[in-house]
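User: I'm curious what two different proteins look like when written out as structure tokens. Can you demonstrate?

Assistant: Sure. I'll show them one after the other, since each token string lines up with its own sequence. Here's the first protein:
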Amino acid sequence: MGNYAGNIIIYLLILFALGVIYGTTRIVKSFTDTQADILKPSVSYSWIIRLCLNSLGYGTVLLPGYLVYKYVCFSKYLQRAGSGFLPKLIGKCFVGGVESGLLDSPSYTPTANGSRDPHSFSQDAILLMYCFIGLQFSYLTWGYLQEKIMTQEYVNAAGEKQHFHDSQFLVFVNRILAFTMSALYLMVKRQPRHVTPLYKYTFCSLSNIMSSWCQYEALKFVSFPTQVLAKASKIIPVMIMGKIVFRTSYDYYEYVTAALISIGMTLFMLGSVEHKNDGVTTISGVILLTGYMVLDSFTSNFQNSLFQEYGATSVQMMCSVNLFSCLLTATSLFQQSSFAQTLEFVTKFPVFIVDCLLISICSASGQLFIFYTIAKFGAVTFVIIMTIRQLLAILLSCLVYHHRITSFGVLGVLLVFGSIFLRIYCGNRLRALRNRSRENATTKD
């Protein structure tokens, strides 16, 4: 009897925590709405308020989930409850293991390494061109729409003009379509057994949606070419995150190219004439770009650790991360009444629906092209294609939106991308030398 009473107390505690966070979010949101006129002079810092509101929304999901993990999933409750729906759901979310049975195909039979069908050179060239065009079209269009939505005014037939400000809604629409496409792929294509506890995806899901949010918000304070070059320079925070958090070791050439990339980024920032004279705006842009790179670096490193520990496939990872991303962002948007506000914006500017649909399709199809390219041609080929894409994105943005870059800025761009290609070449060359020495050692034995 005491155990049942304890479980009831735990559930009440979870509901209480959920209610407190939800109530706090509504109070803060109503206060900021009523104080809108007072906050307008410090609009450059309003992203901090939005970030706090978003975090409270995410906490509405994460805190009850943590309490379930802490007090329920390893308690005697699961042992007594047997094969009920709730115990199974809790077990799949927090325990994992061979009985997970989600996102996989029990009858899956792995193929042997090297079983890829042989292709002629012309067939490989056509397939590579298909991947190249698919990635370029998806992400160049995505970048163009991203800058358009966040920086350009929408105008309707009545002559009304308005900017769209809700970055989190764009993150949500991107994730919901990516989740749908990856889930459909998993239903059609057989997958190996999925043993990863689902809750572990929440870490990289949270960092992923927050990094995307920072990316959209940064466009309000810095130019798109600046953001693209910052993304190209994220090798540096990825290395720092890997070294400090995940104890990853790097070769000497990686440190040299990282230093050259940082120098090139500095030259570009000094040579860009797009930066505003407002110091607050500049600081906000730098903080948001830094937040994007740090969070994105954690996402990639954490996903890599899950790949190594549990062996999930890329599409399983895509589906799981986007599932939690949809849950977190939808909860936050609901608490802030953002769905109603977006619907009101759509009724005034119907063309916004087209932009949202296109940017979601480009984002989701781009992710699928990423996995397909890596599977067929390897990570090095993929990195080269995406590096070319970043160069083209800067060129396209400068042509369409008339961004001006000085000679110092051009030198910085060339130094950054030259360092990236040097990094790719050195890494490939070093791997070839190591493989050759390993083969020679094997031959001698």
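Here's a second, unrelated protein for contrast:
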Amino acid sequence: MATPEFILKLREKIGTDELWLPGVTALVRDEAGRILLGQRSDNLLWSLPSGISEPGEPMSLTCTREVLEETGVKIEVTGLIAIHTTAPVTFPNGDRTVFVDHFFDCRPIGGQAVVGDEESVAVGWFDPSDLPEPLSPGVGRGLGQARLYAETGRTQFD
């Protein structure tokens, strides 16, 4: 994915210094309990749909936009599973970023699972007991948080 214009403008001012950005991750489960995953084009790991918020964009809208753009699936956000801050990430160009991720529980309401943009090479629905490899480590963490959210009804913060 091309770097959004607002980030390029910020980078002109701060260079490669650490930049904190609001992000979203979506756990989309269909009626059969399958999970929507995309295989990333940059590292070929299977991951939950995710992305960053545009300035002024509500986080739940970011989530619905990102899932639609990446997977072709229209969703409804049904809950906030967790909010957590990632470890610092250094990109190949030296830019350093920390993401404050908002992890949403979602259900599909339309569309078909297809590769929607250049961020993915494959998209599909998977049974949680039979997930594809190689799998992003974030998927396991997210499924654990989702189980705790389902059991307690409480959003996790860390």
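A detail about the second structure: Residues 68 and 95 are 27 Å apart (CA to CA).
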